Amino acid sequence: MVTILGAKTNKKTKFISIRWKLVSTYLLLVILLLIVINIFITKTITNIYLQEKNIDMLAKTNIIANDIDYSNESRSNSIIYEIIKNEVINYSKEINSRIIILDEEKTVTIDSKEEFEGEKFNHSEVNSALKGKSLSNEYYYKKYGHIMYTSVPLILNGKIEGAVLTSTSIDNIYTRVDDIKKALYLISIISIISIAVISFILANIFSKPIQKFTNAIMNMARGNLNQRVEIKTNDEFKQLANAFNIMSTKLDQVDLQRKDFVANVSHELRTPLSSIKLLSGSLLHQDKVDEEIYKEFLSDIDSEVDRLNNIIDDLLSLVDLDKEKLNLNYKATYINHLLEKIISRLNPLAKEKNITLKYNEFNKIQINLDKNKIQQAIINILHNAIKYTPENGAIDVSLYSKNKDVIIEITDDGIGIPEKDLEHIFERFYRVDKARTRNTGGTGLGLAIANQIVILHQGKIEVKSEINKGTSFYIKLPLNDTIV
Ligand SMILES: Nc1ncnc2c1ncn2[C@@H]1O[C@H](COP(=O)(O)OP(=O)(O)OP(=O)(O)O)[C@@H](O)[C@H]1O
Ligand SMILES: [Mg+2]
């Protein structure tokens, strides 16, 4: 089942570059637009020509209807009939149209082409003219092409005596429109080609940054995390490139830290392990060993095992603290009580070096925190103060609130930290003087752990120090949920 699903998702989809998508979208839009414009222009022009022709034919047919003096009586007079017929034929030539005269019964009495005389015409134009209303319509016949019929009533002495119907070819209008259409098609094709070329060039320009990002991301995937994408334009791509560059620098730093961390862990674990190996090896290879020496070596091995244990405990705490959204066990805690407890726990250690651990009576401050974690952070810092203060020194611990923070200040008059090291002391495994700390047995994880704990509580640790004068650590925790 899994493989079938896997096969389905792995199915290769056809790659269509964004360039082609852009070009084809542009072209489709342009072609649609041109089709609409072409239809609109040709329709409008045809209508204008037809209207013009319509007005012209109505005027001409009206003139004929007014000019010929043709009543029922004159129809019966063959001489008058011939004269009028000649007149009609002349007019027909003049206006280049067929002219048909009909009586009130819709019978053709005169046809300039003499074809329909005597026939009945039931055209809507004839009916309309006989009702007194001029009318003009266009028709298309396969045989004759486009034809316009125009009818006008034939009025004599205020009475409708018949109708004049003109029929004229309007094919020339359509040929002119066809010429315009051809010109429009040519312009459209030229526009489509030029837009295709321009949009292809533009799409190329637009898609170039994407290619740059793809290359950079592929390089990252190959393990070269420090990639930079340079974009010259001042647009969203530039913003994306800036964000990308920040991300890749961060990733590179994290990767370096990870490598450093692994190297440091291995180094720190190897040191006690090699001394254990050395000590146990020398015991094994000696035949008769004094019980004294046995005990001495075994106690050395024991303290190295303790050291290993401490390092592993510290590392596990760090791994724990690194876990995303670590669920802190928040509880309302009197921080003054907590401090008193820690001080009394570490007092014996200070006494060993004859260090005075002073603390003023603390104000009662209750705050929501993970008691065990904060205790660990304070112990790490106070332990450092004892560790890095020579014999007969003094350490001051105070607790106060300032602005919106609770501040635990731990000040010693010890060896101090050089300025160049101050920004690094919270890094994992960082020790100011490796040789010096080696004597005190530190691994450089204490402050990293303390810092991580305080950050998880939305607080921060600040430090001020002067060489050979002393160091002050300030643990600042937010006062939001404080009950004083
Ligand atoms: N109060 C202090 N006075 C002088 N130097 C200090 C003080 N606190 C810390 N440092 C310096 O900062 C370094 C880092 O401290 P950190 O507590 O992280 O490591 P560590 O004490 O060496 O080892 P451990 O992991 O056992 O605590 C120390 O090695 C020391 O050089
Ligand atoms: Mg320490």
How does this structure look, described?
This protein has 13 helices and twelve strands. The protein is an alpha+beta fold. The protein folds into three domains: 156 residues, 2-Layer Sandwich (Beta-Lactamase), CATH 3.30.450.20; 86 residues, Orthogonal Bundle (Helix Hairpins), CATH 1.10.287.130; 152 residues, Histidine kinase-like ATPase, C-terminal domain (Heat Shock Protein 90). The strands form three sheets. It has a five-stranded antiparallel beta sheet, sandwiched between helices. The protein has a five-stranded mixed beta sheet with strand order 7-9-10-12-11, with helices on one face. Strands 6-8 form a two-stranded antiparallel sheet. The N terminus is likely disordered.
Q: Note the gap between the termini.
A: 62 Å
Give me the strand/helix succession: HHHHEEHEEEHHHEHEEHEEHHHEE
Morphology: rod-shaped
Oligomerization status of the protein chains: single chain
Strand content: 15-25%
Name a few traits of the molecule.
alpha+beta; Beta-Lactamase; Helix Hairpins; Heat Shock Protein 90; five-stranded antiparallel sheet; five-stranded mixed sheet; 12 strands; disordered N terminus; binds adenosine-5'-triphosphate; binds magnesium ion
SSE blueprint and pairings:
Elements: H1 2-10, H2 18-67, H3 72-76, H4 78-95, E1 98-103, E2 108-111, H5 124-130, E3 135-141, E4 145-156, E5 159-169, H6 171-221, H7 236-285, H8 291-322, E6 331-334, H9 335-352, E7 356-359, E8 366-369, H10 371-387, E9 394-402, E10 405-412, H11 419-422, H12 434-440, H13 446-456, E11 460-466, E12 470-478
Helix pairs in contact: 2-6, 7-8, 8-13, 9-10, 10-13
